[in-house]
Write a structure and sequence with these properties.
- By secondary structure, this protein is of the alpha/beta class.
- The protein is 34% helix and 23% strand.
C-alpha cells in the first residue's frame, strides 16, 4: 500500500503561462491526494516534466530536461538504489508527439497528453506500482477548470480565459496540438478570479493563445474590474486585428486595467504577413499604435516579431527593422523563424538560411537594446507605483515591477528603502538613474 505522505513529487514546468496554468491544476490534485511536493527534482521519488514544444528551442529544452531526469534515474540504479525515481512527461511535447515520446524514451514511466492532465494522480499511483502510465486522449477534452495550486508569487496569478487557436498562422503548429479555440464560461472565470482575489492575489494576468478572440472581452474586463481587492489586471497575447475601439476604451476607462498591452505583430510587410496567413500591413499597424497611444496616454506596448520567414528578402527585413525603430515599442521580443513540421511554412520555397535568420534576429535585438535605453532614460526623476517582489543581497536593494513590466518577461525596478517593505506591497518609487538598462530608484 502506498503511503502518500512519504512519496515526494517534483514538478518542472516549461514554456508559457498557459502551460503553467495546466501545471497548477495538476499540482492542486497532487497536493490534495496527499503527496509531498519538493522543489528540487533530484530529491523527488516521482518527477513530472510539463513540456513545451512551440519551437525547436523549446523542444530541445524539454528533451534536455527529460534526459537529465533519466540520468538521475540511472545514477540511482547504478548506486544500488531501488528504481524509485519515476518520470512522467506531460504537456505539449507529449500531446504533439504522443506515442513517440514513450517509444523513444523507454526509461520514462508515464506519458500524459493534455486531455489526460486530470489523471495525474492515477498516473503517479501506476508508476509507483511499476506500471507504465500512457494516457493519450482527445485535445477537445482538455480541462481548463478546477482548483489550482499557484506557482507564482502570492500577489499575482495568471488567469486563463481560453485555449487553442483558430488563427492558423502558417508558421505555427499550436493548433495541431492545442486544438481549436475554446473559451471558458464567463461565470467560471469570474468565480475563479473572485477566489484568487480572496486568497491575496492583487494582479491578474489574462492569458490565452489569443486573448482578443474571447467573446465580448470588454464585458469580461469590466466585470473583473468590479472584484474587490484586485488592483491590476493585465492583458497578454492580443491579436492586433481584434483590438477594437471598445477594447481600447475599456482599457482607458477602467482604472484597474494597467496601461499595458501585449500584441505580437510578427512583421509589417504586407506580403510577408499574407504568407504568414495574417492580415494587416505597415500602415494598419501604425494606425493601431497611434490610436492606442492617443487614447491611453502612457500605455506600454509589448510586441514580438519573426525574422527569417521563408521568402523574406533583405529589403523586407530592412523594412521591418526600420519600422520597429520608428514605432519604438517599449518592449519587443524577436524570434528567428523555426521550421516546424506539419506547418504550411515548412513546405514553402525560399527558406532563409538558418545562420542568416539568427543574424537578422541579432540586428533587431541590438537595435531594441538601444531603444530601451532611450525609453528608460526618459523615466528618470519620475515616480511610479511598484509592487515589491524581493530583495537582492548582491545589490543590497529591493526590486519589483511597475505597471510597465509583466512578470517574467519584462524588467525590474531596483530601489532602496528604509521601511523594509514586504513582497506584495505596493509602494511609490522615484527613479534616479538607469544602470545596464535597469531602473534604479528609492522609495518615497
Amino acid at each position: 500500500m502506498i503511503k502518500y505522505n512519504t512519496v515526494k513529487v517534483g514538478f518542472v514546468s516549461l514554456g508559457c503561462p498557459k502551460n503553467q496554468c495546466d501545471a497548477e491544476l495538476m499540482l492542486a490534485k497532487i497536493a490534495k491526494a496527499g503527496f509531498g511536493l519538493v522543489n528540487e527534482p533530484g530529491l523527488a521519488d516521482v518527477v513530472i516534466i510539463n513540456t513545451c514544444c512551440f519551437i525547436q528551442s523549446a523542444k530541445e529544452e524539454a528533451i534536455e530536461e527529460i534526459m537529465e531526469a533519466i540520468h538521475r534515474k540511472s545514477d540511482r540504479l547504478a548506486a544500488g538504489g531501488k528504481s524509485s525515481h519515476k518520470i512522467i512527461v506531460t504537456g505539449c511535447l507529449s500531446e504533439r508527439y504522443r506515442q513517440q515520446v514513450a517509444d523513444e524514451f523507454p526509461e520514462i514511466d508515464g506519458v500524459l497528453s493534455l486531455s489526460a492532465n486530470d489523471d495525474i494522480v492515477e498516473a503517479i499511483n501506476s508508476v509507483l506500482l511499476d506500471r507504465k502510465a500512457i494516457s493519450l486522449g482527445d485535445i477537445c477534452n482538455h480541462n481548463m477548470e478546477g482548483e489550482r495550486l499557484l506557482s507564482t508569487l502570492p500577489h499575482y496569478a495568471y488567469l486563463r480565459i481560453a485555449d487553442g487557436c483558430d488563427n492558423n498562422c502558417s508558421y505555427c503548429a499550436i493548433p495541431t496540438f492545442r486544438g481549436k479555440f475554446r473559451s471558458r464560461e464567463i461565470e467560471n472565470i469570474l468565480q475563479e478570479a473572485q477566489g484568487l482575489a480572496q486568497s491575496g492575489v492583487r494582479e491578474l494576468i489574462l492569458v490565452a493563445q489569443d486573448v482578443t478572440a474571447y467573446p465580448d472581452l470588454p464585458e469580461l474586463l469590466r466585470r473583473l474590474c468590479k472584484i474587490d481587492n484586485l488592483k491590476w489586471i493585465r492583458l497578454l497575447y492580443c491579436y492586433p486585428e481584434r483590438i477594437t475601439d471598445e477594447l481600447i476604451e475599456t482599457i482607458k476607462n477602467e482604472e484597474k486595467i494597467v496601461k499595458y498591452i501585449d500584441m505580437p505583430i510578427q512583421h509589417c510587410n504586407k506580403d510577408i504577413l499574407k504568407s504568414m496567413n495574417r492580415t494587416g500591413d505597415e500602415q494598419k499597424i501604425w494606425d493601431l499604435v497611434a490610436k492606442l497611444r492617443n487614447a491611453v496616454p502612457g500605455i506600454v506596448i509589448r510586441t514580438t516579431v519573426l525574422v527569417g520567414f521563408p521568402g523574406e528578402s533583405e529589403e523586407q527585413f530592412t523594412e521591418l527593422a526600420e519600422f520597429v525603430n520608428s514605432v519604438r515599442f517599449e518592449h519587443l521580443g524577436c524570434f528567428a523563424y523555426s521550421e516546424e513540421e506539419d506547418t504550411p511554412a515548412a513546405a514553402m520555397p525560399e527558406q532563409v538560411d538558418e545562420e542568416e535568420r539568427h543574424n537578422r534576429r541579432e540586428i533587431i535585438t541590438e537595435q531594441q537594446e538601444i531603444r530601451v535605453t532611450d525609453f528608460l532614460e526618459e523615466l528618470v526623476n519620475r515616480e511610479y507605483e511598484v509592487v515589491v517582489e524581493g530583495y537582492d543581497k548582491y545589490f543590497e536593494m529591493y526590486f519589483g515591477r511597475s505597471y510597465m513590466y509583466a512578470p517574467e518577461i519584462d524588467g525590474m525596478v531596483y530601489f532602496s528603502s528604509k521601511s523594509k517593505p514586504k513582497i506584495g506591497d505596493f509602494i511609490n518609487v522615484k527613479i534616479n538613474e538607469v544602470v545596464d538598462n535597469n531602473l534604479i530608484g528609492e522609495q518615497v
